[in-house]
Design a protein that fits this description.
There is one protein chain. The chain is an alpha/beta fold. It is 28% helix and 23% strand. The chain is built from 12 helices and 16 strands. Strands 11-10-9-8-12-6-13-16-15 form a 9-stranded mixed beta sheet, sandwiched between helices. The longest helix is centred in the middle third of the chain and has 12 residues. The protein is elongated and about 70 Å long. The two termini are 37 Å apart.
Length: 361
Amino acid sequence: MEQALELAARGLGRVSPGPSVGAVIVRDGEIVGRGFYTARGIRHAEVLALEESGERARGATMYVTLEPHCFQGRTPPCTDAIIAAGIKRVVAAMTDPNPQVNGRGFDQLRAAGIELEIAEEYAARAAALNEAFLHFMRTGRALVTLKTAVTLDGKIAAPEDNQGWITSERARAHVQKLRHASDAILTGIGTVLADDCRLTDRSGEERARPLLRIVLDSQLRLPAESQMVKSCADDVLVITTSAASAERRRRLEAKGVRVEVLEGEHGRADLSATVDLLSREKYLSLMIEAGSKVNWTALESGVADKIFFYYAPKILGGTQSLPLAGGIGRRRRADAIRFRDLKIHWITEDEFAVEAFLVKE
């Protein structure tokens, strides 16, 4: 199962909208087959492991990180292939919450006389590999992660010169891993105008589909000469309002930018409606890398599901330096936004990241 989990991890960023799955087949104490799923190859981990093992699969044990699927989708049911190959025993880390599976795969294997074991001690690790997929299957919505780099006093920008970086090169490389594992990334127009950012996946790793880059831009101020637009390859989406200039819209669309009008309260581009749109189009995960105002909107509205904050050993201080979340804030300590399942990730000896989930009221 340890090897199956390692194989599954190789699918991160390469499987959406499917799950990352690894499978290992063992016969007489020897590994005879391995496989992991990628969207490009289409064939599932179990089938790839069976193909590698050939006739040695008969009477063997399969270790798999997620319940084998049992319905006809883009591929035939993996349960059928497992049964036909003569696998004697299946050890799985967890049940697949997909409503089309959700225990039915296990039932089919048991009905065929295959011994089944759920290795519950590996369930948490298997779930972590498919965090966005599991969230989408249970809620129907994309998993939204709010990421930012901050000083120890919670600041993201100085009032004047903001040249350079808050965090180290190693921390920024770690961010690329998060981008690679995400289906979409979102920022506000203020960040684009200030930084002329591209928001691309620079990991160099294969992706199942391009990282969708999204800008909240109520007035369509995104410059046609910006790095974002110049690098557009049908992977830039701008969310705007009815107040935006039709001419600006035509100019951006001529460059290949997709423009959608999703208007919320106070005539602003609607973040929640944006997540709804992504969910309908089966984008399973969204990372927000934005400024103080968008960050607060994501937290206050409950749109964000989790945070990933990178802390640098620095302090800016002052009342004019921007906090990670602006807006009106909570007026009483008793009303503070709360988090659960907090984890600390050490990036360097002096830098760390905090990962945690929002407690939804």
